[in-house]
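Batch manifest line 417
LIGAND: fe (iii) ion
JOB: complex structure
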Amino acid sequence: MKILLENIKELVQVEDSPVLFKAGSEMAKVSTIKNAFLIIRDEVIEEFGEMHQLKDVYVDDDIIIEIDCKNRLVYPSFCDSHTHLVYPDSREKEFVDKIKGLSYEEIAKRGGGILNSAKLLHETSEDELYESAMERVREIVKMGTGAVEIKSGYGLNTEDELKMLRVIRKIKNTSPICVRSNFLGAHSIPLEYRNDVSKYVDIVINEMIPQVAAEELTEYIDVFCDKGFFSVEDTDRILLAGMKHGLRPKIHANELGHTGGVEVGVKYNALSVDHLEFIGESEIAALKDTETMPTVLPGAAFFLNMKLSPVRKMIDAGLPIALASDFNPGSAPSGNMSLISAFGCIKYNMLPEEVINATTINTAYAMGVSDSLGSIARGKIANLFITTDIPGIEYLPYSFGSNLIETVILNGEIQTF
Ligand code: NIG
Ligand code: FE
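JOB STATUS: finished
ARTIFACT:
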């Protein structure tokens, strides 16, 4: 099966020699081709170039579907490297508590927040969880996301964590989107362990990790390493145990304080450290020249009215930045990556080009798929979207809140909604 996209106004984020991620001043560079064509064969990007070059590669009768992309831009799909989109129900009551003045930490301390979701998850069947999560997956696919990382972490006991990871595996096996899963048994401390956190950490290490690994349910391990949640010592123990079972760290760090989360992530060669509201010179120095992708979650910072991560400072220091949605019921009930792109420009002072790199190739790296996704490159999986009639790449983050995505192609197949 072959698809030809022709008369593309601008083909965005093309790579002749693919890189795994972009850092520092490279983040402001995005290669594009104006008046372009793109050929997809089966699930793969086969060829692209300027329209006048099409006759050199076009073989008559070879093309089955032709799409005229006049006035339209074509982008690689967004990769969303940090979500919690498997959850039992929304938490808008806490949203109102927050409006009335309670902080995220205060709600958590009362047994609300993540523990509230954990209680509900316990009462929800695997099938129900799968159905509600698939609705969210369909929603983000429609909004241009072509790869998503999904965490467990609303189970908080062995059986329910396994239940979540099995749901994630089912999503992976039944949906066209690329899925990576991340085991987050240490997402919150259950009330009965509040006075003896190390006992819960023991359960994560001795019960959960071995079973998760034995069922091959995930490739990553996460810890909410932050003030009021898990300490650096807890995180150290959990990451080490996960690594012994072949799980690579990808952790929550420095959302609520300068907690040492970044340093412990770097120490264990985490694929990413995520949130990063509390970042100073020492965290930046720790991240420099490592394989760890600093990942910022603008939706959570916006929703919780948090201080903003010093993204400009990090890019100027030569670091890469990834932007992900954090889609979850408590701190970021949206997986809209166009909106995340707009926040990148509006709130973090990023250029549109930096935002494109931060939401495609760098998030692809942060979920371990940048060799096959995250840019328009020959041989990469054909996950991409076609915009509506828009003037140029600046328009997407500029027109925040609008849906400018008209057509979605995943694995070389046009998606219908
Ligand atoms: O990334 N920070 C920790 N975990 C989530 C919140 C999950 C929730 O509140 O349900 C986050 O923001
Ligand atoms: Fe998160």
